[in-house]
Structure formats: structure tokens, C-alpha cells
Amino acid sequence: QILLESNSGLGVESQIFSLLRHLCRENYQDFRPVLSVRREFIAAVKQRLKTAGLDRIRIVRTGSLSYYRCLAQAKYLITDATFPGRYIKKDGQVIANIWHGTPLKKMGKDNLSERGMMGNVMRNLLQSDYLVFPNRFMQEMMTRAYSLDKLYQGTALHTGYPRNDIFFRPHEGEERKNRMGYKGRRVYAYMPTYRGRSDRTDHEELKESLLRHFAQIDHLLTDEEVMLVKLHPFEHSLLAGLSYRHIFMFPQEYDTYDVLSACDVLVTDYSSVMFDFACSGRGVVLFAYDKEEYAGQRGLYEELDKLPFLLTDNPADTIAAARQFCGYGYGNRRQMTEADRDRFWTWENGKGCEDVLQALLFGNIRCETARLNTDSRKNVLLYAGDLSLNGITSAFRSLYSLLDPGKYNFFVSFRLCSVKEDLSRLDFLPPSADLFPVSSEMNMDLLTAFAHFLYLKRGIRRPWVYHRLEKAYHLEWKKHFHCAGFHRIIHFNGYENYMLSLFSHGPVPFCVWAHNDMELEIKLKANVSRYILTDAYRNAEWIAAVSDSAKRSVYGVLDPFSPKEEVQVIRNCQDPEYILNRARQRPAFDPGTRSTAPLTAVEEMISQDEEPVFMSIGRYSPEKAHDRLISAFERFYRKTRKGFLIIVGADGGLYEKTCGRAAEGPAKDRIVLIDSMKNPMPLLAKCSLFILSSLYEGSPVTLFEAGFLHIPCLVTDAPGIREMVETFGGTLVSADPEGNALAQGMIDFISGKGKRMNIDGDAWNQDSLKAFYRLLE
Question: CA-to-CA distance for 495 and 525, rounded, in angstroms?
């Protein structure tokens, strides 16, 4: 059984249609092709298959139970895009991915605006046994965009696209042109690129531009000319019900490439169809009326004016350019060079269908092949967590910026569900960063969900629970990482039940970071399951703690009967230059920032010299003890009638409650609470005193930031904080619940008793990096 899927079920097009036609030949009678189609396209697909005489094809509705049964049972699978994120490749299945075009538009990690969404595409490419590359340009771009040179373990087939075979049989195109009723007329195909992004498109603006252009083109065309239009399936309805004299939609009963084979000239803009159609030797016109805007939004791998096609920006010039090609390629254009052919049409040969099917079904390789995985360095996965605005993300950013890419290939991993609503969380990563997003959530049936609940909430590990979860997480590992070949995995975040369990059940050695006193974290916030964390610590090859107090808490989680000698203290790296550069910027609120005072008032506050400005940075969560800090400031204000307090935080869930607490007291007009400010360094650089009132910490990044900016520090005596003050200086006061000691510390500060920290960032970082590399080796 062969399951084929075209454009995620949005019909049947080009690559897949060509392969289906080939599979209906006599020498493939032993194979049973099944086509996946979405419900709303089934009728049109059936009609198209009937017109082509393809009666052996069984259709299943995409997303149905029958569809998933086919995904699980089919021996062979072929797609021109991706299979669903929940699909897990079974042992013995063979997959061919024939991507839907040569990429002119940037993709994968090269497309910075959408690189967080690339996980399922990357996963599908890596699990494919065969990838088809018709030219060097495509292989180069896709290999870089999806890190195939470091991860891909299958075979790259150097052969033509199946859909392009038809361009090597020009007589069929001429016959089809006559059957379509256009004998003796010049037929132009217009296939504009989808203008939307992965999540939206401005339909009204697009429709307006299409209607304006079509009105002009219809007026320009003569009765000897016809323009056939093909829009993206998401945009097809925009022109429903419209009628023109010389402009028509592509005939639905024919495949797109069957129609193209009957056309004299192709008009497009940024679509990969330009490279396909050029195989015919006929003319290509690029009507790129919005090239600056489009290239700016999406980015292009190649400048349009460097391609061997005519470039226009208005309907009149477009039709004039198309008329130059009425002699099948003889016109006034830049001549295609041998270098062009070698780059964009390297392996096009008119035998794509047969080459692909012979390789997939029989292992009979008839074309050139290549091994893409040419990088000899070992791959290390760095799971960074949700990348929210907190100290863990700051510590990860600093560590990543200092890593030597010559030692290992470092892949940054995160869950799509954590960054999907705010892809700007990835902005700190350089464009060259290798990414490995986890694109889907856990597959669970009811019994597995029940077993998961018993284990997660009650710690029940009876044999049936254990075996059920063991099997479930084994499959989850196969789904996400089976085809990647990682040498080590670092769970830097140290939280998140799903990812901890996933790495615990995987075959690759992994390390868990402990950023906090995890005993107190579990008791105070219950943000990770004790049972999952304990098992993760037991199964980890190493545990890395950011401080001695965090190391002691690891033993508390493990319990006294399970000593773990492999707990290493690896202190968080810091990046002084990055902190200083951010501090030099002008204060700015972000689109999602909330504040109890406008930015102008905050700027005025930090610019005056008459009164002290106290500042704290930390999540609005219980362990930060902001209530204690506010109480302390209120005591200070009652005694001195001066001073301001600024608290900047993110996440944690207590922002509104903290605002309510501050609004109740006598210093309410002197306290500013800011939520989700990506760069608080300009405020920190101008404050008088930095205060940390936490109940506990791991290795507080904010203290390093204040230290590098030479801001005096006042901190409570708590695990993780005491060690830093003893090492680098600052003022340490007792952690009384009412904040009396903090209030006295503020009074002492304005009396001239404030202490700064003295940190040697370079020496600190070198020690941390040496420990990190020892862990990997």
C-alpha cells in the first residue's frame, strides 16, 4: 500500500498527480495507491482522476480514522509537503519527500519571521528515506535551511521533478492545447505566489490588486490571446463569480502541469513554478509589482533581476514581455547560460517519476545520489524551555553566545506551543543558529492518559502504569528525535514535565540543569511533578546545578537512598558586554508591556537626582517575595518621605495581585510595577540601588547584571543569594517576613553604606565553560 498526499490534502497536484499516473501502469499493478484528500476537495479530485482515467486510486479523507490507519499501515508514503505532527514513522515504512518546488523564498531557519514554526517540516524531512533534488540550488538552500548537512541520514536523489517530466514531451502539450479549444491562440498562464504567511493573509488588499490588474490585462489582450489563471487554494475563492473576455481560471479537470504544458508563456512573480516551466524552453515573465515589499517581508534567496527571465512591474509591460515569447522561447531576454543550467536545472531529465518510484518501491537507484550529512562534528541538543523573560532564558542566551561552534553542532530546542504566540522570543538567536523545534504535543489514548495522571499526581508506578508510560514515551521519542542522531541532550530549562519524561525515556545520554532550590519550587509553586523530576534526576547521565545550594536541593529531591555522585556545579555564564550594550539603549516599552505608570513618568523618575530610586527585577511569582519588598519600601518612605521603587517582572501570574497590594499602601504614588519589559537594563543602569528580596534563588542573573553596571546591591539572606554576596560583595540582610531588615538597608544606603559587587566576568565564564565541555565529553 502506498499513501500519497498532495499539499496536505488540498487536492491532488503536480508531483503527486504525476506519480499516481505512473503508478497506474502495468508494471506497478502489485501496489495499491491511496490518496489523502480533505473533505471539501474530494469531489473535484474524483472528477480529475476520472478525466485522467485513473480508476485504481482509493481516496481517504485527510484526518479521518481511515487516514490515520493508512498512515500507520502503509508500507510506502509519499508527500510533497508534510504529514501531521502526530504521525510516528513505523519500523519498515519507507518515505519519499518530493518538495513542492525549488525555493526562491527563504524557508526554515533562513526565514527569521517564521523559524519557530519549522519543526514539523524539519521532522518530516529528517524521517524521509529519500529526498528529491532536481538542481544544485535547491539542495544547497534546503540543506542549509533545515540543517540537513548535520542531521539527515537518508538518501538524496538527483533527478528531475516528477511533474516536470511532461515538459520533455512537448507534443503532448500541443495536443492538450487543441483539446482545450485554444488551437492557434497564444495561451499565457498566470500563477501568482500566495501572499499570506503561515497564519494569515490580507484578502481584501489582495483581491483589490488582483481585480485592478485583471481589468487592465483583459483590456490589453486580443482575441488571439488567452490568459489562464491559477491561484493558491486559500485565495481561489477571491475571484469566484467574476467574468472576463480573455481571462479564465485553470480548467479544474486537468492537473496544473498538464495545463502548463499547453501554455506558450508563464507569468508569475516569486513562485518556484518559474524553474519548472523553464524546462520546456518557453518564456517566463516575472510580474513582480511588489517585489520590495514581498522580499522585505519574506526574503528571497536570489535577486529577481539576476534570473534569466524577463522582469516587469505593471500589466502593460507584462503583456508586452509575454508577446516576445510567442515563438517558444525566442525573445529579447537575458540568455540562459551554462552556469544557470548547472545551478537551476542540474538534474532535470524527464525521468523523475520512474527514478523516484524505482528507488522507493524496489531500492533500484537509477540516478545520481548524494549523502547530505557531511558534517563530522557531534550534534548536541540544548533544550531551552519556553524562552520567556526570566533569568533562565538570560542564562541560556549568555551560555549560547559563548559556545564554540567548532567543537559541536549545537541545536536550540523549544516547544512550538511555548513560542507560537510570541516568536520574538527567538530574536536573541543569531540567523545562523541551528534550531530543532518540538512541533507537536503528546499522543495519548484514554488508558495512557489515566496512567499519566496516576504517575504525575500520585507517583503510582505499578507495572501496568510503568509499561504503559514506557511505551508512550518511547513512541514520543521516535516521533521527535529518532532520525536526528544527537550525541548529548542538555535539558537546560530544568522544568516541564513532558520534556523531562521524554528525555528520561530516550536512548541518548542527557543532562538536567537545576536553576533553583527545586524542593522549595515544588512546595511553593508545584510547577513540576516531584515524581517526574526524581525519575529524570535518576535517569540523567549528569545533573548540573548552578550553585551549591541548588546542588543540595537536588539531593533532597532524589531522597537519601538514591545518592547521585554526578551532580556538577556549573555556574551560569554571563555576558558583560551584552548587558552594557543593552544598558546604553533608550528605555522602551514593548507591545505587550503593562505598567502602572507611563514610560515618560518612569524616565523622569530615573533622571532626577534628588531622591533615591530602588529597583528590583524578577518574575511576579511567590519566591520573589515582592510583598515583602513593598512593605519594606513603605516603612522606608514613612521615615524619610522620599524615594521611588520600580519592580520589573514577567510571567509568574501575580502581576495584578502585586499591583493591588502596592495600591493599598501609603507609598502607592511612589511605586511603579512593570510587566514584560524585554530590556530593563536602561532603567537598572540609572537606579540608585538594586534590591533582591527573594525567598530563594539558584544563581540570580539580575545580581550579575547589577554588578556589571556597578549598581550597589541589597539582598536578603536566602539560598543561592548568600553565596554570591560572600563571593562578590554587596549588602546582605536578614530575611524577616515583614521586611524590616530591608527597610533598614535602604536607610543605611542613603546614609552612604551601600556596597557594590566586584565580578570578574571573564574568569567566571571560563570556569563555567570548562565544566560544561567536560560534561559533554
Answer: 12
CA distance 534 to 554: 9
With both helix axes pointing from N to C terminus, report the angle between 761-776 and 391-402 in degrees, rounded to the nearest 10: 80
Residue 737 C-alpha cell reads as 517576613
Beta strands in 141-278 (DSSP E): 155-158, 186-191, 225-229, 247-249, 265-268
How far, in Å, CA of 673 to CA of 662, rounded? 9
Distance (Å, rounded) from C-alpha 280 to C-alpha 271?
16
DSSP state letter for 385 = T
Q: Alpha helices of 454-610 — where are they, by DSSP H?
A: 463-481, 497-504, 518-525, 530-539, 548-558, 576-583, 599-607
Provide the residue type at 689 as one letter.
Answer: L
Helices (H) and strands (E) in the chain, counts: 31, 28
Sole residue written with cell 518510484: 357
Helices 391-402, 576-583: axis angle to 10 degrees equals: 120
Return the number of other C-beta atoms located less than 10 Å from residue 218's C-beta: 15
CA distance 70 to 502: 26
Question: Quick one: 743 exposed, middle or buried, by C-beta within 10 A (0-12, 13-18, 19+)?
Answer: buried
Q: Would you say 526 and 494 are in contact if contact means Cβ atoms under 8 Å apart?
A: no
CA diameter of the chain: 96
Q: What is the pLDDT of residues 2-38, one digit of tens each?
A: 999 999 999 998 999 999 999 999 999 999 999 999 9
CA distance 412 to 499: 14
Other C-beta atoms lying within 10 Å of the C-beta of residue 311 = 20
Instruction: Let me know how long the chain is.
Output: 777
Per-residue pLDDT reduced to its tens digit, 501-560 = 999 999 999 999 999 988 888 988 888 999 999 999 999 999 999 999 899 889 888 875
Task: Decide if 487 contacts 493 (C-beta within 8 A).
Answer: no
Name the 3-class secondary structure at 284.
strand
Strand order through the sheet with 247-249: 247-249, 225-229, 186-191, 265-268, 283-287, 310-312
Q: Give the residue from 324, 325, 327, 323 showing the smallest Cα distance to 220.
A: 323
Angle at 289 between CA 280 and CA 344, to 5 degrees: 30
Tell me which residue of 266, 306, 264 sits closest to 286, measured CA to CA.
266
Contact by Cβ (8 Å): 755, 738:
no
* Residue 555 contacts residue 654 (beta carbons within 8 Å): no
> Given strand 58-61, what is the order of strands in its sheet?
58-61, 33-37, 2-5, 76-79, 94-97, 130-133, 155-158, 368-370
pLDDT digits (tens, 9 = 90+) for 92-104: 999 999 999 999 9
C-alpha cell at 98: 518530493
Cβ neighbours around 496 below 10 Å, total? 19
Q: How far apart are the C-alpha atoms of 492 and 73, rounded to whole Å?
A: 37
Report residue 448 as a C-alpha cell: 495512557
pLDDT-derived band at 714, boundaries 50, 70, 90: very high
Cα(138)–Cα(157) distance, integer angstroms? 12
How many other C-beta atoms can be found within 10 angstroms of the C-beta atom of residue 283? 27
Residue 711: pLDDT over 70: yes
DSSP lists the bridge partners of residue 78 as: 4, 96
pTM across the whole model: 0.92
Task: Please check the confidence at residue 238 and state whether its pLDDT lies above 70.
Answer: no
At residue 281's C-alpha, the angle toward residues 351 and 80, to 5°, is: 45
Under DSSP, the state recorded for 27 is G
Q: Name every residue whose Cβ is closer than 8 Å to that of residue 26 and which is 6 or more positions away in sequence.
A: none
Contact in structure between 510 and 383 (CB atoms under 8 Å): no
